[in-house]
Amino acid sequence: MRLLLLLLALTATATSVAQSYPAKPVRFLVGYAPGGATDINARIVAQKLTEIWGQQVVVENRPGASGTIAAELTAKAPPDGHTMLVAPQTSVVTAPLIFRKVGFDTLRDFASLSIIGSTPLLLVVHPSLPPKTFKDFTAFMKSNAAKLSYATGGIGSTPHIAAELLSLSLGVRLVHVPYKGENPAVAEIMSGQVPLMFSNISAVLPFVKAGRVRALAITSPKRSSLAPEYPTVAESGFPDFDVATWAGLYAPAAINRDLGTRISGDLAKVIRMPDVKERMVNQGIDPVGSTPEEHLAYVKSEFTRIGRVAREANIRAD
Question: Is the pLDDT score of 104 beyond 80?
Answer without folding.
Answer: yes
